[in-house]
Protein: DNA mismatch repair protein MutT
Organism: Deinococcus puniceus
Amino acid sequence: MSGPDAPDPLDAVQQDPWAVWLGGRIRRPLDLPQYRRAAVLVALTREPDPRVLLTVRSADLPTHKGQIAFPGGSMEPGETPVQAALREADEEVGLAPHLPEVLGELDDVFTPIGFHVTPVLARVPAQLHLTPTAEVAQILLPTLAELRALTVTSEIRTLPDGTSVTLYRYPWQGHDIWGMTARIVHDLLTRGPM
C-alpha cells in the first residue's frame, strides 16, 4: 500500500517502547581520549518478550576468550559507533546491516583494559538467521524476562585511578554474564521501559 493513506514506517519505531525510553533519557557519554574506541550492538528482537543477542567469544581469540559479549569491536578510522556496531554484527554473526532498526546510543561504558565502548540499541526481527564466524563459539538469545528472573550478584571495585564501579554477574543457563556486558544488561533491565 502506498500513497497518502499508507502508514509511515517510522510510526512503528516511534511507538516502540524502547524508542520512547531511549528518547526520554539523557545519554551519558564518556571523555576518555586515552582509551581505544569501540562499539557494540545491543539487538533486541521484536516480540512481546524481547530476546537480546549475545555471543560466546571463541577460545581462540587473543582477548576476552570464552566471555559473553554483544557483537562489536574496535571502531575503524572515520566510523561512527552505529557504523562500527552494524559492521561488527555482520562480521561476527552474519546479521545483515539493513536488518537492525537503530534506535540510538546507550550510555558509554569502559573496560579496565582500556576500551571506551558505545552501546548501540537496535530492534531486529524475531526470526533471525544468524551464522557465527570463527570469532564466535555460540550465539545466545535469552529473553529479558529470563534475565530479570536471575539472582544477580554485584560488587564494588576500585580502579587504579580511584574510580569506583559496580560489577554485576548474571548466571544464565550455565553461562556467566559479567563485566561490561553485564553492566549494559543491568542498564536495560533496571532502567528500560518494561
Remarks:
- Confidence is low (pLDDT under 50) at residues 8-14.
- The first helix runs from residue 9 to 15.
- The helical segments are 9-15, 17-23, 81-93, 144-148, 179-191.
